[in-house]
Design a protein that fits this description.
The complex is a heterodimer of chains A (164) and B (175). In chain A, 37% of the residues lie in helices and 10% in strands. Chain A has a five-stranded parallel beta sheet with strand order 1-5-4-2-3. In chain A, helix 3 links the parallel strand 2 and strand 3. In chain A, helix 4 crosses helix 5. Chain A is globular and about 35 Å long. About 12% of the residues of chain A have low confidence. Chain B is of the alpha/beta class and 175 residues long. Chain B has five helices and seven strands, in the order αβββαβαβαββα. In chain B, a hairpin with a 5-residue loop joins strand 1 and strand 2. About 15% of the residues of chain B have low confidence. Classes of the chains: A alpha/beta (164), B alpha/beta (175). The interface between A and B is large, with 39 and 37 residues.
Chain lengths: 164, 175
């Protein structure tokens, strides 16, 4: 018996729901300190597939993608078009971030990412996100990388660039 | 009607299982492609933070625990004191721990090395060394290398240290 064409979208929806539930469960653990990745509201998280889709789309208003982690890891591989800013966990990194976005419209879509360590251990995205919100940016997303950039982006076949 | 419903359910389950299987296969395939398991560990020579020569090949005959870490990596800070303890405990039985810091600034790494009192050589890494190891795109990353220079285990992210120690002991018993 062949599966009905109505059934496949329903199954995709079910899979998306299950994945979403799993991701949500990841956030119900440790307490959210202001500097932790857990402090970022779930609505502001962007899944790798969604960012890749945004990057590939023909829309003119591409997001500004900023890496706020390690420069060495950035040099090895980063998201095409992304800019290296500096570690969000350090005052110098936050200062560079502030300088980079100072002249931008507060409605500009900015995507932050790090992927240095497992999400719950990342010291960089939380402070960087808080800094942009403090500056009045209303359209900030953070790329959700559960394990690290290698496992959740590069190894999944999404495009990367090399170099500093 | 009940037969049709049962058939629809079977189809739905098949689609679900297929989707899960395909997702798992794609992920595993990508990981397998970049794994160094059962391959000779890429050789490198660096100057350590304490100015000593760190030459991976020079440690042939020993079991090597090669640890990629950074000062901003919280799980790394948890692992490194344990590695230092293993160096003391298993060093006489043929273990050599080697650390590679992926920090931008050697001064930051040296501070942590001194603070933790690490008793094993630590060298600075960079993107070239990372690429040599198939892309060090997340930390911590630890390899167990046997006495012939072959990678026998790979731990990415927060590892179960008891599992790692058991594998280490096995390698030391059968180098």
């Amino acid at each position: 018996m062949k599966c009905g064409p109505m059934l496949r979208p329903a199954m995709i929806a079910l899979l998306v729901t299950l994945t979403s539930s799993f991701v949500n469960a990841q956030f119900s653990g440790p307490a959210a300190t202001p500097e932790s990745a857990f402090s970022i509201p779930q609505a502001q998280l962007l899944q790798p597939e969604a960012l890749n889709h945004l990057q590939q789309s023909a829309r003119p208003d591409k997001p500004l993608v900023l890496q706020v982690g390690s420069h060495v890891l950035f040099a090895e591989a980063h998201i095409p078009g992304a800019e290296y800013i500096g570690p969000g966990s350090q005052p110098a990194g936050l200062q560079l971030l502030q300088g980079r976005v100072a002249s931008l419209a507060r409605t500009k879509l900015i995507v932050l990412y790090c992927g240095c360590c497992p999400w719950q251990r990342c010291p960089n995205v939380g402070p960087a996100f808080a800094k942009l919100r403090e500056m009045g940016f209303s359209n900030v997303k953070v790329l959700y990388l559960a394990d690290n950039f290698g496992a959740d982006w590069a190894a999944k076949g999404y495009p990367v660039e090399q170099g500093r | 009607m009940r037969k049709r419903l049962a058939a629809l359910c079977r189809c739905a389950l098949a689609d679900l299982l297929l989707g899960v299987c395909l997702t798992a296969a794609a992920t595993q395939g990508a990981f397998a492609a970049s794994s160094l398991l059962h391959k000779t560990a890429p050789e490198f020579v660096r100057t350590g933070l304490n100015h000593q020569r760190v030459d991976l090949k020079a440690y042939r005959g020993k079991v090597v625990l090669l640890d990629f870490w950074a000062t901003w990596c919280a799980p790394c800070q948890v692992e490194m004191p344990r590695f230092a303890a293993w160096q003391s405990q298993y060093g006489p039985r043929g273990l050599q721990v080697i650390g590679v810091s992926m920090d931008d600034d050697p001064a930051d790494a040296l501070l942590v090395v001194r603070k933790l009192g690490l008793n094993y050589p630590v060298a600075m890494g960079d993107e070239k060394l990372g690429e040599l190891y198939g892309g060090v795109l997340g930390l911590p990353l630890t390899y167990l290398i046997d006495s012939k220079g072959v990678v026998r285990a790979e731990f990415q992210g927060e590892a179960d240290m008891n599992v790692m120690e058991k594998q280490l002991q096995t390698l030391l018993q059968h180098p």
